[in-house]
Amino acid sequence: MVDNRHVSAGRRARRARRASAAGAVAGLVAAAAVLGGCGLPSDEAAASQEQATATTTAEVLTEVSPRGDGTDVDDPNQPALSEEEAVEAAVLEAVQGFWDTVVEANNPPDPTHPGFERYFTGEALEHSRGRTERMLALGHVAQDPDGVELVAPQLEFQSETVVSVLFCFIDNATVVDETTGTVIDDSINVIDAELTVRLDDGKWRVAETSLVTLREGATRCDV
User: Fold this and answer.
1) Cβ(162)–Cβ(121) under 8 Å?
2) What is the DSSP annotation of 53-74?
3) pLDDT (tens digit, 9 = 90+) per residue, 25-49?
4) Distance (Å, rounded) from C-alpha 110 to C-alpha 172?
5) Which secondary-structure segment (H or E) carries 186?
6) Which CATH class is domain 9-216?
7) Which of 32, 37, 40 is nearest to 59 (CA)?
8) Of 120, 136, 146, whose CA–CA distance to 29 is shortest?
9) CA dist 132 to 6, 127, 183, Å?
10) 168-187, pLDDT tens digit by residue?
11) What pLDDT does 193 receive?
């Protein structure tokens, strides 16, 4: 059983290193893609603005959800993980899968991306897939060749099946009109976010997301 508590500072550091080693989380790309504004004529501006706004990083963080299945390849040179560490690794893998899907499914937009079924569930699935559908309709793509890295992820166990994950990341994705190449949004922001990850049908999946703070024009996390 996992005790309900915050992960220790040392554990957080290990989690941060593990998250970094797993690869930069390219979630911002898709998040920014969802953020794209629309450069259409005035008679269409209101409707397109509403659609485009639904694809922002902020919205991704208030409406998206993923899941992780903890299928890490064991390293024979590393000591076996405790039950608690294995859960933490699986939860972070779910968060990684969430962001990877957000990125890949929006460049180019693909509402049928398999990551939606694998890492998303419930309302989060509905909102995130709907956001990608809007990106597709608008002809926008989200580009972030550098990807996104979770900075200082912190895990807090709400129960044995619900974990909150707080982290910071830099949103430097660029939203582009795929047809004309026009840049829709290339702003850089630093975002503190919280994801609620739930054990669903034997798999950890992000069920809820929320934007804690957004610092426009910032270029580094305060950790």
Assistant:
1) no
2) HTTSHHHHHHH---EE---PPP
3) 333 433 433 333 332 233 443 344 4
4) 21
5) none
6) alpha beta
7) 32
8) 146
9) 34, 9, 18
10) 999 889 999 999 999 999 99
11) 93
